[in-house]
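From the pipeline queue, job 12 of 40. The input is one protein chain; the requested action is below.

Action: predict structure.
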Amino acid sequence: MEFNWSRVLEVLQTSKATLDVKLLLMQHLKLVGISLAIAVIIALPVGIMLTRPGFKRFLPRVMGILNISQGIPSLAVVAIFLPLAGIGTFPSIMALTLYALLPIARNAIAGIEAIDPNIIESARGMGMPASMVLWKIELPLALPVIMSGIQTAAVVTVGTATIADLIGGGGLGRLIFTGLSFFEPELIFLGSALAAVIAIVIDQLLNLANRLLTTPKSE
């Protein structure tokens, strides 16, 4: 297959419904944004809960389930949701959310458990209730590790979202699979390059947010 750069420019300028790059780019961002937000809403509270004394006994079982879900090939995850939820955006988001849970929950647990127990004991000794210790001490100290987990989940989700088109989810995967079907390496390159750019931009934005949230504010 001979590579033709003019074909890449042609696709970027096209407005056909099947290969409208702007539309596919927005679909991809929608898939990533919604699934990542849902994953954070689910995995972060679960990770925090599993560090509490009353729930620590469930930690191996829950993390085992999440590890299994992460170990399933991404194509298999999409295939599992196909008969359960049909085709379209909804099953794609479900599959992507499942894939993003592990790094967020794992880093939340690791970040909280890495805190020096003496700091927590000192806060409790000052009369702080458990809820305030969590919000004022544990979460701020664990935030860099938690944000690192969200960054990992975001990058993984951007890459995995390219296969959402197999079940009608749209996104940049349509460029890649169209290129494979019609032996057009330009489309494969364009879809892959745009996905890589999205992953880099999201990673850098989350890294910036991490620095802003964790940098001590001067008085």
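Job complete. The chain is about 75% helix and 0% strand.
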